[in-house]
Design a protein that fits this description.
The structure is a homodimer of 222-residue chains.
Chain A: H1 5-8, H2 19-27, E1 32-36, E2 41-43, E3 51-57, E4 59-65, E5 71-78, E6 81-83, H3 85-88, E7 98-101, E8 105-111, H4 112-121, H5 123-147, H6 152-166, E9 172-174, H7 179-186, H8 190-202, E10 206-209, E11 212-215
Antiparallel strand pairs in A: 1-8, 2-7, 3-6, 3-8, 4-5, 4-7, 9-11, 10-11
Helix pairs in contact in A: 4-5
Chain lengths: 222, 222
Amino acid sequence: MDRVIDKISKINIFSNFTKGELLKIFDNIPYSVKEYSKGTLIRNSGERVEEFMILVNGEVITEMIDFNGKSLEIERVKAPDILASALLFAKENYLPVDVIAATNVILIYIEKKYLIKSFKENSDFLLSFLEDVGEKFNYVTEKLRITSFHTIREKITMYLLNLYNKQNKPKEITIPLTMDELASLFGVARPSLSRVISEMQKEGLFEKKGDKVILNNLKKPI
Amino acid sequence: MDRVIDKISKINIFSNFTKGELLKIFDNIPYSVKEYSKGTLIRNSGERVEEFMILVNGEVITEMIDFNGKSLEIERVKAPDILASALLFAKENYLPVDVIAATNVILIYIEKKYLIKSFKENSDFLLSFLEDVGEKFNYVTEKLRITSFHTIREKITMYLLNLYNKQNKPKEITIPLTMDELASLFGVARPSLSRVISEMQKEGLFEKKGDKVILNNLKKPI
């Protein structure tokens, strides 16, 4: 365990803990470590997710099989990260994808019942798990909300409006995301995003200085 | 408590419990009940969410204030339901909306620390909470995935493809949602959805009988 603990500590759920605390959590929890060589089918779609899966080394691809029998890549996940954590506690916990090792891979598995037991023994671990789920949920919800606006200009304005309300309607809003993260949240290319932000600044709607946005005359454009 | 327990038991998180079990949970947890008359501002945007909020009676509206100072309705929530549960455990737990009583309203508040304490004492309650969060997350993720496809025909196909993979690639897929729920998931009007489903059936792509879809010759249209 000792040799992977540094990697695990980079995962959001575990990032609040010291190395010593993490070793203590894993000392009190039964887990198994499995290695897969590149190209191995790790999990089949249709299987139930009954274990907490920590990807500690390598990269996996998730794929669906389309109606012609062809593979369709859905997502790539790089270590260190958690796999399918939202499915673990859902009633309908069937995996919609095949999980394939894109490189040599090491996974740690923890059975659901032992994870629950660990949550009961360690409130901080439970809180950290709930915090992670909450943040992922909020991210996806925000992304869905922004997706419903079609132009980049609308997306920017509605994103700023959300922050404006969260931050108690200040004249100067703080943007917690980098430009790359913003582009990813909006589902647009970064150069397109930069171009529209420049245009909106030239029109005097707002002024962006680093992570601050000073609102001048931003009217809701929809 | 006794008079509201029937309502609470209709909320997903509490629906796995008998009335007796729910009374026991609430006997061991400090909570407060507050009543608001129609039109009251219950919560301000910018406030931190530190309590679990159960809407037991009435209806609330959530609103943002736009850059012109005008209110913008975001959502209506009817009792019985949970409010802002994903924010409760997020680090950035600032409310992005004002919460206003659309009718006379009764809310039950439970402080976060007491909820955690109750989770530790009662694994079933914790599991039920995690299950609810997991299911909401999966719904939003699925909705976001489907939103990325533009035509209704594509949305239907990609939705069926997901079920096809989850259900172990059978010839006959079971649809777990009603037509209204499907329309809501796809973000389209129900009559439009019905029309496209009819068209696709006429073309011989699949056959829909109640909640079953028999795949004939459904090629991925993208």
